[in-house]
Amino acid sequence: MKFLHISDLHIGKRVNEFSMIEDQKYILNQILSIAKHHQTDAVIISGDIYDKPIPPAEAVQVFDYFLTELANLGKKVFAISGNHDSAERIAFGAQLMKDRGVFVSPVYQGTITKVSLADEYGEIFLYLLPFMKPAAVRHALKEELGEHTLETYQEAVELVLNRIDVDKTSRNILLAHQFVTGAARCESEEMIVGGVDNIAVELFDDFDYVALGHIHSPQSVGRDTVRYCGTPLKYSFSEANQTKSVTIVELKEKGQITVFAEPLKPLHDMRIVRGDYLEVTKKSFYQGSDTNDYIKVILTDEEDIPDGIQKLRMIYPNLMRLEYDNSRTRKNKSIELVKHVELKSDMELFEEFYELQNNQPMSKKQRDYVKQLMEEMQEG
């Protein structure tokens, strides 16, 4: 059985005040063509369908069109809510949509939606895990938890998954929208300070394929079959060098899984242009490139160009940002960095360094040990 895995559509999103709705319509139609071309049996949508909990009417219409077209193509759809979505709004009409082969995660009340499919190799079970916060799990399982405190995302997701009776002899797919420790992040993602939203990849050991959402860069974590498909469009200039894609997953007999990425071509690319003003406005510089792309221009001139944005938009109409990289801006950045460092304690700086190196915060035991070492050094 073949699945197309997408996530983080963020329908209705604005980037630097530019509406992305036309780009999203374009890319969703491309995804429909890919699903048809590869003859996928189903489409997985791993959260952040919309960019806001209360999406604008046009965003709802776009997603309604996408679901309808998938159903008309005979593709089953499995979707979960993400941290940008309202779980209640995403679940609206879920019982009715099941008749058209569209399965949507409900608000978590202590159980996870499980759907069974079958092919020539036997049954495949799909588990729809919406974005999980500790508070939501505490609320749903308050009687079971009793006096036990549930504080971390790791504890919350682990408890939820441990309540699932997974048949390990069958093929199992999990849809989830969480941050798995070790995944590389982008500027366009919503981040929680301190990395407290981290969960360990080992929580997914019982599942043959884990269709992840939340991280915008396409990547696998821990093993090839635990995968973030990434966003179908670039939503920040930190993603400018990425190639966006959808993930195609084919399950044969137990243990036989093929995973590959099918690239997407956007209506407008997002890229960075760098040089001095005379250089970037010279016809020989931009000729042959698509000047309608979403552009960030970094000017290296020592003096600001009067009305620079308006002048540059005569050539690059979708210019989103204008920045300067010169001796003045580099000096300002250095001053800001020094001020930032001076405001922090040695322990805070060490913790930040540790997290940058290891993609996870220090444990209490590690903090206590380092604190003791620092105190001993100061006494010495």
The proportion of residues in beta strands is: 15-25%
| Biggest sheet layout | 6 strands, mixed
Spatial gap, N to C terminus: 66 Å
Broad structural category? alpha/beta
Helix content bin:
25-40%
Strand order in space, largest sheet: 6-5-4-1-15-16
Shape: globular
Mean pLDDT, rounded to whole units?
Answer: 89
Rg calculated over all Cα atoms? 24 Å
The total strand number stands at 19
Helical segment count:
13
Which stretches are poorly predicted, pLDDT < 50 over at least 5 residues? none
Structure report:
The chain has 380 residues and is of the alpha/beta class. Helix content is 32%, strand content 24%. The N and C termini lie far apart (66 Å). 32% of the residues are buried.
Q: What's this entry about, in short?
A:
The chain has 380 residues and is an alpha/beta fold.
Helices and strands in order, then pairings?
Layout (H helix, E strand, L loop, with lengths): L1 E5 L7 E2 L2 E2 L1 H17 L4 E5 L10 H16 L3 E5 L6 H5 L2 H4 L4 E3 L8 E7 L2 E7 L5 H7 L1 H4 L7 H10 L8 E7 L1 E2 L17 E2 L9 E5 L5 E3 L1 E6 L16 E7 L5 E7 L6 E6 L1 H4 L2 H4 L7 E6 L8 H5 L6 E6 L2 H16 L3 H13 L5 H16 L1
Parallel strand pairs: 1-4, 4-5, 5-6, 8-9, 9-12, 10-11, 12-14, 17-18, 18-19
Antiparallel strand pairs: 1-15, 2-3, 7-8, 13-14, 15-16
